[in-house]
Known about the structure:
Layout: H1 3-16, H2 21-28, H3 32-39, H4 50-56, H5 61-66, H6 76-107, H7 112-121, E1 126-138, E2 144-157, E3 163-170, E4 182-186, E5 198-203, E6 206-207, E7 217-218, E8 225-228, E9 234-236, H8 242-245, E10 250-251, E11 263-264
Antiparallel strand pairs: 1-2, 1-9, 2-3, 3-4, 4-5, 5-6, 7-8, 8-9, 10-11
Helix pairs in contact: 2-3
Amino acid sequence: MDKIKTGALIAAARKEKNLTQRELAAALHVSDRAISKWERGAGFPDISLLEPLADALDLGVLDLLRGERGMEPEPEPTVRQALAFLARQAKERTRKRWSQVLAGAVLLVPTGFILFGILATAGAFEREITAEVLAGVYSQTGQMVGETTVVIDGTRSSVWGGSYSGKFAIDCLDATCQGDVTAIINWDAFGRGEGGERIGFTAPGYHVASGVESWLYITEDMGSFGLRLEDGTIIATDESYVPLLTADYYYAVYLPVETAPWSIPME
Length: 267
């Protein structure tokens, strides 16, 4: 998604509706500075604001994500259901993040850093995850064509945004199932608190060409996820992931409400 194009579309649609930035901001219960920021291409609306913003401007949600009006009718209810699904995840992550911040504040006493180091060394911020998850297999157009299992067996860390290292073997994808292949998942892939979830596969001494695209959606307990293969096939535990994964953008949903999320092209 191109933030400049999306900003220009918001500005043009607002002017067509004869709305000022302040009037649009009032309708969305945000500041007029937020509207100005979006229109300048300096950020995107929070995921929870996409639907009301689209409604206020007589646009489709996908129009906002693409940065241009679509020529064909979009499956609006399905897209909105997908965004609602992701928004629920974002809300839960924000709650957990605040819990971590408060816990960290307790540790930041004069002996806090020492205690943190002791706890980290002892593995207090890590837990083992072993699971076999059933996921649907979807075509490039979003049609379910089968099922596969994903074997998860590794260590989940909650430090610095969260990460996972271990087996993430997709049964229908041989490259991920080799005995020496390790999956690395990061929940703050942008590294600046801006969210994004990224997966990569490695083996001793080299990077594995797994056939899996880098960006994915995955809950922190790893029980729910959606990802796309390089041939366009989608692997998802819930069909709510499918509408976004059939598009060519990735929408980061890991941010607090006051910070505008942004998107990048799928790789």
